[in-house]
Each structure stands twice: as C-alpha cells, then as structure tokens.
Design brief:
alpha/beta, Alpha-Beta Plaits, Rossmann fold, four-stranded antiparallel β-sheet, 28% helix, elongated
Length: 293
C-alpha cells in the first residue's frame, strides 16, 4: 500500500520534541537526516550527535487525515508550523529495492566481494560471500575497498593476522581465503563478533580459523600482519597496543582515515614503522607500514 511522508526541517535543539510529537501523532517511523552538509565522522564513545540543521521525515499510513494530523502535531508542539510538506511514497518491494543497491565488487586481480543473491562474475577467482548487515564492512566504503585491494596484492600464505575492529569480518575472511593460516578478530561490538562468525561460516571457514574476541578478552599474541580499519582518533590512541601486536618485520595496515588525518596517524606510529606511500580513494586513505627490526 502507499504511504505518506511528512517532511519538516528543524534546528538541533527542537529535533527531539518534533520527533516525539510525530510519533505521538501516529507516525510509524521518523527519520533524521543532515540538512546542511555537516558530516559527523567521529562521535565520542556513547554519543549520538545531531547536525545543526536536521531534516525530519515522519512516515504515515496513506489513509490518515492530513489536516487533522497537522493540527494535532501543532497542539503537541504548542506552536504553529508555517509549512507542512506531505508527499506520497509509493509502496515497493523494499527487499528487492534494497538488494538492487549492492553488486559484486572487484578488489584486485584475485578478489571479489559478492552478495549471496548474485552469481560471481568470475567463479574461478576468490569470491567472498557477504551480505550487508549490522556490522561495518561490505566493500562499498572506500576504506574497506582500500584494505581489500591491499590484501589482494600480498602473499599471505601461512601468515597469522589480527583484524582489529573486525566489523563484518570481511578483511579477515579475505585474508584466510588468500592463504593466511590464522586470523584473530577483535571488536568492541558484540554484534560485530556475531556477524564475523556468521560470515566466516557462510564462506566455508572452520570455527578455529578466525576466533573472535572483545578487546579485553583477546589473547594478545603478536601477528605477521595487523589490520585496523576503524577511525583516525582510535588508531592514534591505540598506537602502542597495535604496535605491540605487530611482530618485528611484520606489517600494519590502517584505514578509516581521512586524507587530512593521515599525517597525525602516521606520527603516532613512525617511531616503530617505516611507511609506504599513502594510498587514497576519494577523501579516504590507507596507511601501510613495516615494523622496524
């Protein structure tokens, strides 16, 4: 069935009240979007920040009386609203609509990421079966792509890796399918650990090939390669820990970093690592360093 959308704009201070009023007036969902091109890239732990100007969309069943709903909304807020924009939203097969946004991604000469509903374009190559989910890492984001591209170029045969901030497990799974012997997955989000385990099973990997841990329970053994695709701030803060986890002569691959943040992250590691030239895709970069002997 069709739906109706009510669209409003608000400043940050008024957003919560409008969201509550929309729900009280029968909205089945409320969506908040940036209305002023103001990206929020690194919120502090536990924060859910909002933009200064917010676009608010309330979703309603099509049979509602828009005039009475508008009056009720103004009563809830205690003031009049100058303009209420109602739009019809045609119903679709939303599952197929969502699936249509994801396609196989080639990450180098050997490596593909393929949603489960797609036939691999090159069945003889290394295909990672991965569906979008709650944990970060599908290959569509430049940082994930940059890390996958780097892994594709490496000889990983019989190496041990740590995927720190494993998310969906995509990097560790790729490493194992490229010949790595063992990968340890670490993430602060229990949902990510479940996603990694599920994705490893979907790709035919044994439970023991990629065990997953919360940081405080991770074994702490060093590895030949440490992968960390998180954010610039945490990467700088974790420099000592990630350095310890990298064996002498081993490599570290860091991403989740904007090009304006690259030097600050490298500065946190240069005492112990020699860095290769920076790789960049859009505004994001990948840093790869080899640990000094």
């Amino acid at each position: 069935m069709p739906w109706l959308q009510l669209k409003l704009t608000a400043n940050r201070a008024d957003t919560a009240a409008i969201e509550d009023a929309l729900m009280a007036c029968g909205a089945v969902s409320v969506t908040l979007e940036d209305n002023a091109d103001q990206p929020i890239l690194e919120p502090a732990l536990g924060e859910t920040p909002l933009w200064d100007q917010v676009k608010i969309t309330g979703l309603y069943e099509a049979g509602i009386d828009t005039q009475s709903t508008g009056r009720e909304l103004q009563q809830q807020l205690g003031h009049s609203l100058s303009h209420l924009q109602w739009e019809q939203l045609e119903d679709k097969d939303w599952e197929r609509e969502w699936m249509s946004n994801f396609h196989p991604i080639c990450c180098g000469e050997r490596l593909w990421i393929c949603p489960s509903w797609c036939e691999p374009p090159e069945p003889d190559k290394i295909n990672i079966l991965l569906d979008p989910g709650l944990a970060f890492g599908t290959g569509t984001h430049p940082t994930t792509f940059l890390c996958m591209q780097w892994l594709d170029q490496q000889n990983l045969t019989d190496l041990e890796l740590i995927d720190f901030g494993c998310g969906s497990g995509i990097l560790g799974i790729a490493a194992l399918k490229l010949g790595a012997r063992h990968v340890v997955g670490v993430d602060i989000d229990p949902q990510a650990l479940l996603a990694t385990a599920d994705n490893a099973e979907r790709n035919g990997l044994a439970d023991t090939a990629m065990p997953v841990y919360l940081p405080q329970k991770a074994p702490g053994n060093s590895a030949d390669i440490v992968l960390a695709n998180i954010l610039a701030g945490p990467l700088a803060e974790l420099a000592s820990e990630l350095t310890q986890l990298t064996r002498p002569g081993g490599k570290i691959c860091l991403s989740g970093i904007l090009n304006t943040q690259a030097q600050a992250v490298m500065d946190a590691y240069t005492e112990h690592f020699e860095f290769e030239p920076i790789a960049q895709k859009e505004e994001w970069v990948r840093l790869v360093g080899q640990k000094k002997q």
